[in-house]
Amino acid sequence: QDCFVCGESGATITCRELGCDRSFHLPCAAEGGCVTQFFGLYRSFCWEHRPEQAVEVAPKDTTCLICLDPVGARSSYSTMVCPACKQAWFHRGCIQNQALHAGYFCFCCPRCQNEYRFLMEMLTMGIRIPRR
Length: 132
Known about the structure:
By secondary structure, the protein is an alpha+beta fold. The chain folds into two domains: 1-50, no CATH class; 52-131, Herpes Virus-1. The protein contains three helices and six strands. The strands form three sheets. Strands 1-2 form a two-stranded antiparallel ribbon. A two-stranded antiparallel ribbon has the order 3-4. Strands 5-6 form a two-stranded antiparallel ribbon. A hairpin with a 7-residue loop joins strand 5 (79-81) and strand 6 (89-91). It starts with 12 loop residues before the first strand and ends in an 8-residue tail after the last helix.
């Protein structure tokens, strides 16, 4: 099958939404705004059917707690928020790097230190957290 992101053949990952026939390569997933959940059934979703965070609008001049660069004024594929305190905003790439360094047992919100809700939300949103 052809990848809907790059157009090349050999795409083996298909969106898990019923009726959606979009396929993509795993390396193309991030570029195409796709979400792959690295737990349970290892489901993947295209940009149209990916899970979204249920959050309000971010306050003005919000910065990423990890890199201290500005984040957008709303949740998006590249901007995320802690589900527990709803005040910790960060870039997807920044929180992914933190997850890779912290591992499953030390990964928590950089602001409120919530572990369980934060971890479950990040897994659902496609953040890969290694068990080490």
